[in-house]
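Trying the structure run again after the queue cleared.
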Amino acid sequence: MNYPTLATDLLESRLAPPQGQVRMVLDTDTYNEIDDQFAVVHSLLSPERLTVEALYAAPFFNSRSSGPADGMEKSYAEILRLLERLDWPAEGFVYRGSTDYLRDAMTPQPSAAAEDLVKRALASQENPLYVVAIGAITNVASAILMEPSIIERIVVVWLGGHALSWAHTREFNLKQDPPAARVILDSGVPLVLIPCMGVTSHLHSTVPEIERYVQGQGAIGDYLAETFKSYHSDHLGWSKEIWDLAPIGHLLNPEWTPSELVPSPILAEDITWQFDASRHPIRCAHFVKRDPILRDLFLKLRART
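Done. Tokens:
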């Protein structure tokens, strides 16, 4: 696949922390766990900074689905449940994603989500479209394979993989679709990578905290709280990661996710990171500040009721 090469000054400007209002779409495997729901709500409750143009349902396959297609459909349905409790219209706003992962790094999996992403990206002019991905990155990679020129119009912010110093990078989002991850890492698309273990791994909350600041905050607060509490039967000494809030936090305030420019890592066949200093740069987070991200979400839930 021949990808367009971004001029150095354009790539560096796209990798700079965003300023002002941010146009974005959110690609999410919403039913996979419970943290996607928090990220969807946080993004929609942040119009002072984020203009969310569309939500895309991403595939997933684990104990909560019978396969990638089922995972995508369950995520689509979960998005609709969230929007209903937010009184947010779904028509023309929510799109079904891929029903399978990429077979290789050359062949897309067409979907309504990928097609919409191509359309929105091509319509972008001076301000890039931020593509926030918090699941397997199949939909985004497919859109790039369908129309490689969109890498000139977008910035991808992806919660995927583990810290670049981690012994392996077999994180759920990444290991589901390694060919899609390679498209994102190798194409030269402006990328903000937010790793999980070693970076975002302390972004947790507990039942007492959720009951105090989320439960009772309208229909959506009650839904988030019940989803959180029902994920585990024994809450004694238990906390739950809400890692998917990190990419939203990055766009709201880049100081909440300290980062640096590094050469894009290489995803090896054994799903470990390898490195070549001559590769194009990406921005990679090396820490996530839990407290201000959760505080911001809690205050916005309170203000809405």
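The chain has a mean pLDDT of 97. Worth checking whether this holds up in the mutant runs.
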